[in-house]
Write a structure and sequence with these properties.
heterodimer; A: 242 residues; mainly alpha; 81% helix; B: 101 residues; 2 domains; 4 helices; flat
Chain lengths: 242, 101
């Protein structure tokens, strides 16, 4: 029994690595650019790599650089980071629902690697996720992020300008690639995505709040509204059946 | 390494890790109310919608860049292409676009 479980975790680890490849591709241009900007902001190579190693959150790292460049204090930078990354709470709570029973230590370890991208890949996967899968997925994404941050610092952006520009679409293309198959099978998914996109567009374009809060609020509003409508409809159907 | 920067990085690391980790500890082995479970199951698709839009329109100054990239990805994904093919396809279309325009 023990050994079959270990074999399953090992196979899932490999599956996780495979699922992480599109994230690794998508992180490459962003991490290279991060390394380059970190250098021009005045960070040392060690600090740049350390930030990618310890924080592992693209948007927050970019924002911290621009705040540093404006001479903003450490406390405000940490607070902003918290606000930008609070959305991961929602993602972890959601992923926890489809996570298999692994030890609490394993869960706490792989939760470090929850990003918009690893979450999207894991959450749209068929069935459940376990520690083996999550470690494989995170390892691929994390390696790309850390290595290319360092390389960006050392060699600059390094890619031809045209490729650098066209690769900026990579992560969004991945999000679309994860979303569309589910949209085809389930009209509820269409409502969820379109509604959240609409809310987020209103919040950001009207400059009502920061991007971090806009994503959290748009996601929650859409998820709650769609669930409420479905519960209401099911309730009425149940009444009609009686 | 500058000591202040190191302290800042550690602070950023802590406030980034906590929201990622806490739900796994707080909700471990707990059966949440069905309505709340339903909301959490909706979160991935709503998140994807919010992550894609409107940010994809602003990846470059030329707004068409994002629109064409999104359309290419959507068509490839709709035709059933694997995620990696969607990503590479979308990059290729945009490379062609910036080559000609």
């Amino acid at each position: 029994m023990e050994s079959t479980l270990a074999v399953k975790q090992a196979t899932d680890f490999k599956k996780g690595i495979q699922s992480g490849i599109s994230i690794a591709i998508g992180y490459m241009p962003i991490a290279l650019t991060f390394g380059l900007i970190a250098k021009t902001t005045g960070l040392a190579l060690g600090e740049t790599v350390m930030m990618s190693l310890f924080v592992f959150a693209g948007a927050a790292q970019y924002i911290s650089l621009s705040l540093l460049a404006q001479g903003i204090g450490i406390f405000e930078i940490v607070l902003t980071t918290f606000i930008v990354n609070i959305r991961h709470f929602l993602m972890s709570a959601s992923l926890n629902e489809k996570a298999e029973e692994d030890s609490i230590g394993a869960r706490m370890a792989y939760s470090f690697g929850i990003t918009d991208e690893t979450f999207s890949v894991a959450a749209t996967r068929e069935g459940t996720v376990n520690a083996g899968y999550m470690f494989g997925l995170n390892l691929t994404a994390y390696s790309s992020w850390v290595i290319f941050s360092g390389l960006g610092f050392l060699i600059g952006a390094g890619l031809p300008q045209t490729l650098q520009e066209s690769m900026s679409v990579a992560l969004y293309a991945m999000f679309v690639g994860l979303l569309v198959p589910s949209m085809k099978n389930n009209v509820k998914v269409v409502f969820l995505a379109v509604l959240a996109a609409a809310f987020n567009s209103i919040f950001t374009l009207a400059e009502l709040m920061s991007t971090g809060w806009a994503i959290v609020l748009a996601t929650l509003l859409s998820a709650i509204l769609v669930e409420a409508v479905e519960t209401f409809k099911n309730g009425r159907r149940a009444e009609a059946d009686e | 390494m500058n000591k202040e920067i190191v302290i800042m990085i550690i602070g950023m690391a802590v406030v980034t890790y906590l929201p990622r980790m806490l739900p796994f500890v707080m909700f471990k082995g707990k059966e949440l109310p069905p309505f709340l479970q339903g909301i959490l199951k909706n979160v991935p698709y709503a998140t994807l919608g919010a992550l894609i839009f409107p940010a994809i329109l602003f990846i470059q100054e030329d707004i068409w860049y994002g629109i064409i990239g999104a359309a290419a990805a959507f068509i490839a994904a709709f035709l059933g292409a694997n995620v990696i093919v969607v990503v590479i396809g979308s990059i290729s279309v945009l490379t062609l676009y910036s080559y000609f325009f």
